[in-house]
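Hi there, hope your week has been kind to you so far. Do you reckon you could talk me through the fold, stretch by stretch? I've dropped the whole record in just underneath, so have a look:
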Amino acid sequence: MNQPAVSPTLDTLFQRTLIRQPHAPALLDPLNKARVTGHQPRRMTYAEADTAIEALSAYFVESGLPANSVIAIQLPATVEFVLTVLAAHRAGLVVAVLPLLWRHAELTAALNRTAARAIVTMSTVDGVSYADLAMHAAAEAFSIRHVCGFGTDLPEGMASLDEVLARPPGTTRAVIQDGRKAAMISFDVTAEGFRPVPRPHFSLIAGGLAMSLEADIRQGATVMAAFTPMSFAGLASSLAVWLLSGGALALHHPFENEVLEQQINEHECEVLIAPAQLALRLGDADLAARMPTLRNVIGLWRAPEQVAASDAWIAPHAPLTDVYLFGEAGLFGARRGEDGMPVAVMPGPHGAPREQSGSSIAGEILLTPKGTLGLRGAMVPIAAYAPPQPVGDTLIAQPPRDYVDTGYAARLDRPSGAICITAPPSGIMAVGGYRFLSNDLQEWARRLGQGALLTALPDRLSGHRLAGRAQDNTRAREALSELGLNPLMVEAFRDRSGPG
């Protein structure tokens, strides 16, 4: 009797490489990890990583976390992040990724919306106590049963995962490895508000394939990931690309340019995956002489409407692939040509690689009747973005929608027929990877006091940056903290003294 074909999971991809080359380098920590988290940097082979994954997976099972339950993770771009995600999947759990810039209120909302049974964090990141943040959020989330952390000086009641890694693995359970099973939950902000976005393994792998095939990443390459991993794009560009290539994954906690350059040269990285504006800045600084081992650069655009007007790429030894990000809805990539300019993106199905005839279809781009960009394909979670049922028509079945409307304004260029993305979704701001409704600014400004001003200004690197003016800037920061803004987010507030 023939067994039905089962699509691979992320753990399946890891174990394939583990069997083939157990002693090859697998994971490389940021060189400045001691400053960021207090941990010393680690370098792990596939066999060492597998032992750590097995120990963490056994702990999750022994803690009583049922299969298919949700475990929330709020970690920086370090080895612990990768180990925890793979361990959770090996234990049959679904990972909910929580951005580092989130406020207490958002953490609590995410934990409650997903009915998460556990949360994993780091004791401190860049001097901020994430352990305390997790404990306070867990106290208001009725489903949370376990709070776990890496690092020292953990609060009472938080389990130490460093101690788990220091002892032999315990009891595990058999889990059916099927790529159609839920793998992750990320979170998006749309015009309708806060939205959890679940995805199966095959959707994450599809996102990684779209990048790695378009950029022509060779098997066994050492990949430098310098993009915050707590999103679909972050997981696809780090975890999925690494597992598909079967090489080593070097991680960088964004951003210290000198440390990043040192890491790339020390680890002889062939691939750099980073925010596009950072990649362009590095490309302008004699990339061939300073980082000669690079052969591919993947630039991730949080603001895809900026791609067409971007500067030419001037490092031909390491071609640039533009990856257009549309929140948590999906992405697509386009490798630049010999002139270094962005290539035209046509509507309709697109393969990976894009210009190769007969290549596998990575997705489809379309223009919606509202003049916005739509996406469909294996990586696009259509059900998560289904429009709400019209009021009063609850008994009338609505026609199914087979695409996601990203909300990005777009049009067709008449001479070429290419898609032109012209503006981000209305009413949504982004500071770094943190998205929020523009109406939230009014509430934040109100808390700053009379005569205060808070606005979001366009920023080429991070999308927007917060700028403000207050009679008492110290009190303004305190007010934002009282509102629940994460301290790292508060640091984005700029005092703009004087009129205007």
Observations:
- The first helix runs from residue 10 to 20.
